Amino acid sequence: MKKFMAMLLILVMVFSLAACSSDSKESDGNPTIGVTIYKYDDNFMSFVRRAIETAAVDKAVLEMNDSQNSQATQNDQVDTMISKGAKALAINLVDPQAASAIIEKAKKADLPVVFFNKEPETSVLASYDKAWYVGTASAEAGVIQGELIANGWKANPDWDRNGDGVMSYVLLKGEPGHPDAEARTKYAVETVVAAGIAVEELELQTGMWDSVKGKELMDAWIAKHGDAIEMVICNNDGMALGAIQSLNAAGYFNDGKYMPVVGVDAIPDALEQIKEGKMAGTVLNDAKNQGGATFDLALNVANGKDPLDGTSWTLDAGKAVRVPYVAVTIDNITFAEEAYK
Ligand code: GAL
Predict the structure, then answer these.
(1) With b meaning 16 or more CB within 10 Å and e meaning fewer, what string describes 243-279?
(2) Superfamily of chain region 32-136+286-323
(3) How confident is the model at residue 11 (pLDDT cuts 50, 70, 90)?
(4) What is this structure's pTM?
């Protein structure tokens, strides 16, 4: 009997604690939104995460998850968020191909899902009426970066180090299969060629968006090609920062020895390099607005409203909000600095 009473007491305590904790979440009437970031250890995504967290203050309870670059981990996190009662999901996929698996889970639970940063295939997004995407038009960053390169090349004849009229470049690519990496690579080079500049590709390899990998590749390329390299094209600033470290160590940016390096994102560390004259330019990938739009849409659908309710975002035919990219050089650096504050 004593045992029974003790068990009863424990059960009563457990239930009242559970009631308290769910009350405290719901007492302010704010919905829970389940968020995944493909990995916290990604420079640009840490700014998108911060923007989501800032936007959520007093409006929603966020279940924020680091998927640690594992799709299996992310799938488990989605299951947990659903079972914990999330009213909407905001998903930064690890693997862009995994969108259909996430949609299946959301459909079963009748939950809306807003994908962001890694774009699912249009047909997959179209397969669920409660799925949307927030990101950019991937090709746009490549075109803008290509224009930066072409303008710089034409304005600085000494960038053609050996004077052969051909731009010999190395290219640090992001994650293969990532729509941003594929489109930036293609359109940056195509835009330079369309501007009438002859090019030679000395190296093209993936640095997986990562600074350390960018440095390692650049070290190897400098050792192999030396001064034959005339341009360093990077799919993102993280890898550009790694390349600059490597160039610094090899004596560049000293005694008039220069190398044009371009990136994408306009993260604060890259803006510092532009100010120091070590980066020719970058392309603003607007983390604040992408995080803000992701949250706005997720909050609306969590509250059963139209995704665009009360916002100034627009959806294209593929149910995507596309935040514009902007070219950044030393001339408009303050604008880019403001965008990351
Ligand atoms: C890109 C960004 C990269 C990296 C990637 C992750 O848009 O430019 O730096 O964060 O997203 O998916």
Answers:
(1) bbbbbeebebbeeeebbbbbbbbbbeebbebbeeebb
(2) Response regulator (3.40.50.2300)
(3) very low
(4) 0.91
